[in-house]
Amino acid sequence: MSALPEILHIALDLAESGIPTLPLRQGKIPFGNCRTCARNACGGRPNMKQAGPCWCPAPCHGWAAATTDPEVLTSRPWMRAWRHAVAVAYHPGGAGLTVVDLDDAAAMEWAHHALPGTRTVTTTRGQHWIYRGTMRSSNAVRPGVDIKSTMAYVRWLGTGTGAITALPDIVRELTVEKPSVVRPVAPVLTASVPGGGGECPHRMPAYLDRGIAMAEQRISEARSAVHTTVYRNFLAVLSAHGRCGCLTDAHITRLFTAAQAKGESPRYCADAWGNALTTLGL
């Protein structure tokens, strides 16, 4: 064993205690897929997304390559990787663990107040809090906090201090997607209604109502570029109905309410409406 790279001794010790390990290259990154497995040709799932039916002898499938088998760890393909490795990583979920990765002082302060004590490991910028139990991994569950458990890897930085305690519900709840709640928005009308002056071509009120309803729908269904969507629909409404004097405060209130329900401020609504008026010379 003395001929083995020093870093491999660490991996073998971890594997003996039931912790699946893998080598990391410079930058704390797993080794890339080999030629056989490149572009997922092997049928596996590289890039640490999901373990696949791959029997590649090389450690080229990220966290899914982590193993406790000493024969695999010391096999020829793995030995080539260990000789170029700069660190050891482990798959916490494979060891029945969850790591709360705290990246800065603010995150550590939150943990000390919000989480039950457990084993802690000092990192370059913060701490790893290690709990017994597994869960779904997720990054940025709150500022400076990542969760590493299943389908993830963590750099091995030592045994740490303290006893490992059970994974608390408060950590599990951090990854639960909360349903979005759209609260009613009190309409704020700070825009003027065009005075008109031209002949109104709208013989049927339904034509105007349909135009307002379509603008409301487009704004409500916007998934991106909400600012632009609001402005363009204000512009479209004014282009069709702004010169004849048929728009009322009630119509503008409907448009502003739809925009504010998407998160736009009353100030932006007023500015967008004013810009649309200016563009059309109204």
Structure explained in plain terms:
With 282 residues, this protein is an alpha+beta fold. The protein is 35% helix and 14% strand. The strands form two sheets. Strands 4, 5, 6, 7, 8 and 10 form a six-stranded mixed sheet that branches. Helix 6 packs parallel to helix 8. The longest helix has 16 residues. It is elongated. About 4% of the residues have low confidence.
Which helices and strands appear, and what pairs or packs with what?
Blueprint: H1 6-16, E1 21-25, E2 29-30, H2 70-73, H3 76-84, E3 87-90, E4 97-102, H4 105-114, E5 119-122, E6 127-132, E7 138-142, E8 145-148, E9 154-155, E10 165-166, H5 169-172, H6 205-220, H7 226-241, H8 249-261, H9 266-280
Parallel strand pairs: 6-10
Antiparallel strand pairs: 1-2, 1-3, 3-9, 4-6, 4-8, 5-6, 7-8
Q: Kindly state the percentage of residues in helix.
A: 25-40%
- Following the backbone from N to C, one meets helices and strands in this order, namely HEEHHEEHEEEEEEHHHHH
The beta-strand count equals: 10
Q: Write down the overall mean pLDDT.
A: 84
Structural classification: alpha+beta
Round the Cα radius of gyration to an integer and report it: 29 Å
> Biggest sheet, in brief?
6 strands, mixed
Could you list the spans in which at least 5 consecutive residues all have pLDDT below 50?
46-52, 180-184
Task: Please work out how many helical segments DSSP would assign.
Answer: 9
| Shape descriptor | elongated
Strand content: 5-15%
C-alpha end-to-end distance: 85 Å
Short description, anyone?
The chain has 282 residues and is an alpha+beta fold. It has helices spanning 6-16, 70-73, 76-84, 105-114, 169-172, 205-220, 226-241, 249-261, 266-280; strands spanning 21-25, 29-30, 87-90, 97-102, 119-122, 127-132, 138-142, 145-148, 154-155, 165-166.
